[in-house]
Amino acid sequence: MSPRGFSCHDHATCMSDMLERAETRCRDKGLNLTPVRRRTLEILLDEHRALGAYDLLAQLAAEGLGSQPPVAYRALDFLVNAGLAHKIEALNAYVACTHSGADHAPAFLICRGCRAVAEASTAPASGRLGDAARAAGFQIERTVVEAQGLCPDCQQDPAA
Amino acid sequence: MSPRGFSCHDHATCMSDMLERAETRCRDKGLNLTPVRRRTLEILLDEHRALGAYDLLAQLAAEGLGSQPPVAYRALDFLVNAGLAHKIEALNAYVACTHSGADHAPAFLICRGCRAVAEASTAPASGRLGDAARAAGFQIERTVVEAQGLCPDCQQDPAA
DNA sequence: ATCAGGCATGTTATAACATATCAACCCCGA
DNA sequence: TCGGGGTTGATATGTTATAACATGCCTGAT
Questions:
Q1: Where are the alpha helices (DSSP H) in chain B?
Q2: Quick one: average pLDDT of B54-83?
Q3: Which of A20, A32, B96, B122 is 20–30 Å from B19 (CA)?
Q4: CB contact, 8 Å: B149 with chain A?
């Protein structure tokens, strides 16, 4: 499970690490990590928290990489399909994937204070939801598992 | 876990049952189940699947119960806060609660074919996500657990 | 060499989801 | 009767997401 996201870390190394993995992954899978897509991923990695599509778009626009909504949504779709980013349904926002390995069923701890997101893995079909699905004859294709609350830092915060 | 929603049942009885429970619950808690709120719940119960706020609004409007978005959102907020309905985050849509008991941490099986929704319960802090949260010092306040896929009926369907 | 096809991007417009704000009303208790 | 809380009415706007169509660019087949 080892979540990531609420702990201090060498951010520069973390980012370059993840980017490199993303490039390898795309090369291996025949995917085209174009400048807009790469830059979108960089922004997500850099923030290390959930960003709305329009937040991203503003950044991209400021850098001359496109200013209309489809630009952001296309880049995000690509990243999500490539497994390099995830959508946080409870926030309508997006985060970079921090488990750069193979396909996985992600689960998230989402801080309502700072929108920081820690990613963990779930066993999709195991557990009680899987039992319920099997009992009902329901075929699971995708799972959304998100816990909202306060991260250690924000628990200290007066604003909390 | 016993999911509900993909099985045949006596719908009329189911509805009147749930409505009665909702009324009892509101009376006990000093909540005011007004006509708009009650009708909104009825529509959700009747459909037995995820409805968008604007779908609901259209129904309400057709019945002369208000035609502007706030009408629907207020009613839905009330029902969600009262525990009589849930929001399906992955669809930005709403369903009637089928576990009319006390507060619970719901989990959903959502059919992408017909938008039918079965509700189950999760143990919020148990399981692997709870482990990860404790390990990270994260304080969970709310969980979103949603599985998307195909219900038994839609698995047969040619359109699937 | 050229042209068809795929893929990425540019551009405009609009759909779909959600909330802020203020006014009016109604009921109940002081 | 006055005032306050809660509900509704109404207008406007904010936020998130996609449809639809045009353009450019590379590449491989002929």
A1: 11-29, 35-47, 53-62, 69-81, 127-136, 152-156
A2: 96
A3: B122
A4: yes
Contact in structure between A80 and A93 (CB atoms under 8 Å) = no
Q: Which nucleotides of D are covered by protein (CB under 7 A)?
A: 6-13, 15-20
How far, in Å, are A77, A108, A148, B152 from residue A86 at the CA level? 9, 10, 16, 28
Domain boundaries defined on chain B: 11-156
Taking CB atoms and an 8 Å limit, are A146 and B149 in contact across chains? no
pLDDT band at B124 (very low <50, low <70, confident <90, very high): low
Contact B73, B94 (CB under 8 A): no
**Contact at CB, A107 and B128, closer than 8 angstroms:** yes
Q: Are strands B139-150 and A85-88 parallel, antiparallel or unpaired?
A: unpaired
Distance, in Å, from the CA atom of B128 to the CA atom of A128, rounded to the nearest integer, reads 11
Model confidence pLDDT, tens digit, residues B15-44: 899 999 999 999 999 999 999 999 999 999
Return d(Cα B122, Cα A24) in angstroms, integer. 38
Question: Which residue in B92, B119, B145 has the most chain A C-beta atoms within 10 A of its own C-beta, making it the best mutation to test that interface?
Answer: B145
**Cβ contact B144–A2 (<8 Å):** no
**Chain A CB contacts of B118 below 8 Å:** 132, 136, 138
Structure tokens at A155: 């628990």
- pLDDT (mean) for A73-79: 98
Convert the pLDDT of each residue in A42-58 to its tens digit.
999 999 899 999 999 99
- Give the separation between CA A140 and CA A129, rounded to whole angstroms: 10
**pLDDT bracket for residue B1 (50, 70, 90):** very low
Q: Tell me which fold the domain B11-156 belongs to.
A: Arc Repressor Mutant, subunit A (1.10.10)
